[in-house]
Write a structure and sequence with these properties.
Number of strands: 21
Structural class: alpha+beta
Largest sheet: 6 strands, antiparallel
Shape: globular
Helix content: 40-55%
Radius of gyration: 24 Å
Number of helices: 22
Strand content: 15-25%
Length: 615
């Protein structure tokens, strides 16, 4: 995917050895993951603002993708990473405002929309995006991130400089002029739950813009941050034909769901996309719906390629179903059998490329799978979001079983962070955090307190929403975004289409869970398409990364031991103390906690060597 970066100088005081023009060149070079990727830089406000864009190699011949993109009026300059899906609706609006699009690019439409209506453009667009737009007349910078956090945007400010980028590494180059340090709070959060939740990042004062938020930065350094999208159970969604209110949604959910799913597939999919079919109900349903839409659009002769990842030596019912469906549809089915060596190779590649620790172990299998897809496709379609929006996580089922133990809203928070999303040895995190007087979960606890009042006294909805605003962007989408950025692959998620997600949030839990089974709506819809009942066990796919007493686990142990020997010489006393305390009290090591710990130590070692000025 594309990479963006930029800088706004908010004061004119002198900074030793600071050259903004040279620095922005270095910043965008940090994002390029291949020498063949062209990059473009423009000084959009003389001596004060620069915008930069790294173009994916696959789109190198497309003029529409060249950025920064200038509006017709010349007042707006935009850099943008992502994909806008509702182009037809935007065209209708633009034509009514005396503008006719000149290209097929979503970049052009977004630029013109922002030029005409400013921040209100966020209410009109649907898709995955992170962008920055400079208003030359007002001399202000406008940044935004999509509703669920599919695309990242980081920022840092200090010493009269405001800078942003789609990755952290370009901002680390500013550490000679803005004091930076590895965040101990972020370490505590990362080891407690496996990821670092926005706005926190691993390096302070670098921040990540939260999903569904916008930011305005003025020339004098004043900064306004606001939310343009919030979860709701009372919203009205728009289909292509009409407004649909909450009563209608709940009275005939399957009819509306089928329509919205087909609309989402039409808006997001590409005829040349690789289809991810990993045995989960979400990706299988998307594949079946895509096949239906191909037939309607006279694309039935188009040969699709589906990709399934599986651990060697295992043959799951879900894989058998995928193979049968692909054969029936005339699709090519590429099954990627992986072993421990594949995981080790994947780990080594990831640990070298990460500029922030991402501790969800699925990043290993995602890397392997996306690498294979990327050999033949520029776009991949996956079922991301199914478990969160249609209640597929096991912890939702566990909540039903434990309601009698957690009857008051005050206990929901305790259940979620202590049981529903427990990772590793909880006691060791608490002791290490207490030893250094840090509260890494404080901001997450505040978010959960606010959510409790919005969830109509329904613990299941509380857990679902907390997953959507924390776990989904922080753990799942973060590693998908990182892999796709490194490989130059665009990963689209039709189940995160805003109309579809609003629909899912509007429904009651009984629409999602029945007889201790989640994702009921997805499973029933899939059954209606393929014409047969689907056994429950079909979608109990084994985790491809689980190896007990394995070569991979021994590899992780050796990596940890090697890195621990090195930290004895580190100057980061507080980090060394936290790590040593954590190890002392950790008794329940498992593959996930080993992976997370090893990856963090690798990241910390790399940062310390490359940027010794970062404390």
């Amino acid at each position: 995917m594309a990479g963006i970066a930029g800088m706004l100088i908010t004061s004119n005081h002198k900074r030793k050895a600071f050259n903004a023009r040279n620095l922005i060149v270095d910043m965008i070079s940090e994002i390029k993951h291949s020498d063949s990727e062209p990059s473009y830089i423009r000084e959009v406000l003389p001596n004060h603002c620069w915008l930069a864009y790294s173009q994916p190699y696959t789109n190198k011949n497309s003029k529409a993708y060249k950025q920064p993109y200038s509006s017709q009026s010349g007042n707006t300059e935009l850099v943008f990473n992502g994909q806008i899906y509702n182009l037809n609706e935007l065209d209708t609006y633009l034509v009514h405002n005396n503008y006719t699009p000149k290209t097929e690019s979503d970049t052009e439409r977004l630029t013109e929309l922002i030029d005409i209506i400013g921040v209100e453009a966020l209410n009109a667009i649907d898709g995955m995006f992170a962008f920055a737009a400079l208003n030359k007349n007002e001399k202000s910078l406008f940044l935004a991130r999509d509703r669920y956090g599919q695309k990242n945007i980081y920022y840092v400010e200090g010493n009269g400089i405001f800078a942003f980028a789609s990755e952290i590494s370009p901002l680390l180059l500013l550490s000679n002029w803005i004091h930076m340090e590895v965040s101990l709070t972020a370490l505590g959060q990362y080891m407690s739950i496996g990821y670092i939740n926005a706005p926190l990042t691993a390096v302070s004062p670098i921040r990540k813009l939260e999903a569904g938020k916008l930011m305005l930065v003025e020339m004098n350094g004043l900064r306004l941050e606001d939310r343009f999208f919030s979860l709701s159970r009372k919203g009205t969604l728009i289909t292509e034909e009409k407004f649909t209110d909450i009563k209608e949604i709940r009275s005939k959910p399957y009819k509306i769901f089928s329509k919205l799913l087909n609309e989402s597939i039409t808006r997001t999919q590409s005829g040349s996309a690789g289809i991810i079919m990993n045995g989960d109900v979400g990706s299988t349903l998307l594949a079946a719906t895509i096949n239906q839409e191909d037939k309607k659009s006279d694309l039935s002769d188009n040969i699709r390629f589906a990709y399934t990842l599986i651990l060697k030596g295992k043959q799951e019912n879900s894989i058998q179903l995928n193979s049968q469906l692909c054969k029936q549809w005339g699709w090519k089915h590429r099954i990627l059998y992986i072993d421990e060596k594949n995981l080790i190779d994947s780990y080594l590649s990831i640990s070298r490329s990460l500029d922030e620790p991402i501790g969800h172990i699925s990043i290993l299998s995602n890397w392997i799978q996306m690498e294979s897809v990327n050999q033949f496709h520029d776009v991949a379609i996956g079922g991301i979001g199914a478990e969160e929006f249609f209640m597929g996580h096991k912890r939702y089922i566990q909540t039903i079983k434990n309601l009698e133990l957690y009857k008051t809203p005050k206990s929901w928070n305790e259940f979620y962070w202590g049981n529903g999303l427990a990772t590793g040895d909880q006691n060791s995190f608490k002791v290490a955090n207490s030893h250094l007087s840090i509260e890494p979960m404080k901001n997450l606890f505040k978010k959960s307190e606010i959510l409790r009042d919005l969830c109509e006294n329904q613990p299941l909805i509380f857990m679902q929403w907390l997953d959507i605003i924390t776990y989904l962007p922080g753990a799942i989408l973060a590693n998908i975004s990182r892999v796709s950025m490194n490989l130059g692959l665009q990963v689209r998620s039709p189940l995160l289409d805003t109309r579809l997600t609003i629909f899912a949030l509007t429904l009651n839990p009984e629409n999602h869970i029945y007889n201790q089974e989640g994702e009921i709506m997805l499973k029933n819809q899939l059954s209606s398409i393929i014409g047969k009942d689907i056994p429950t066990q079909t979608f109990k796919c084994s985790k491809t990364h689980h190896f007990k007493n394995s070569v991979f686990v021994e590899f992780l142990k050796n990596k940890v031991l090697k890195n621990l020997n090195e930290i004895k010489s580190w100057d980061k006393d507080s980090h060394r103390m936290w790590i040593e305390t954590y190890i002392k009290y950790a008794h329940n090591w498992n593959q996930e906690s080993l992976f997370r710990f090893s990856l963090y130590l690798d990241w910390l070692k790399n940062i310390s060597k490359r940027f010794p000025q970062i404390n």
